[in-house]
Structure formats: C-alpha cells, structure tokens
Amino acid sequence: MKQNRGFEDPKDKNAQESANPEDEVDEFLGRAIDARSIDRLRSEHVRKFLLTFREPDLEKKYSKQVDDRFGAYVACASLVFLFICFVQITIVPHSVFMLSFYLTCFLLLTLVVFVSVIYSCVKVSLART
Fold first, then answer.
1. Where is region (Disordered) located (predicted)?
2. pLDDT of residue 8
C-alpha cells in the first residue's frame, strides 16, 4: 500500500486539479459570495432575536414546513439526558430533591416524545389523504 506522508503525487490527476490556483480562488470566492448573499437575505427578511420572518405571509408559508427529523432529535436528546442521569445517579449522593428533579424531567421528556409521536402520526395520515 502506497503512503503519501502528506505529500501529493505530481502524477495524480486529482492533485493537479486541486492544486490549480485559479480553481481554488474561484471556489473560495464562490463560497464567500454565497455566504454574503445568505447574510444579506437573512438581515433583510429575518428578525435577529426571534429568528422569524418580518413578513407574515412568509412566516405562515415556512411555519407549515414540517421537520421530518424532529422525532429523532427528541430521541437523541432523551438518550443524552438518560445517560447524564445514569452517570449522576451513580456518582452524586442520593437525595429526595435529586429524585424528584429527575422524575419531573423524565416525565416532561416522555410527554414531549409522546406529543412528537402523535404529531408524526397525524402528519403521515394527513400526507396520505
């Protein structure tokens, strides 16, 4: 197996293409222009603190967009929370306050997961009709 050890083979066609300074400059400028135009659009159309659209019709249009991964986000957050709880239960001395806090948070997260599952099921059933 051939190792480059950080050096590119001059015979490698991909290395020569990526080493072309004009292409690198063009790619860099393209990314900079895209970033500037996104920043300009964001400053013109979005409120900075609330991150909502300034125009109500745009806000209505994009608020109808459903995040398909919301359930996965909630599940991952729940797993992280449960792992943190497990670590703290094994390390921190037990108390009634700690138990009530973890139970309250667990019930709240369970409620959020339940609502997101129902929301996903309603979304799927509405999409089929």
1. 1-24
2. 53
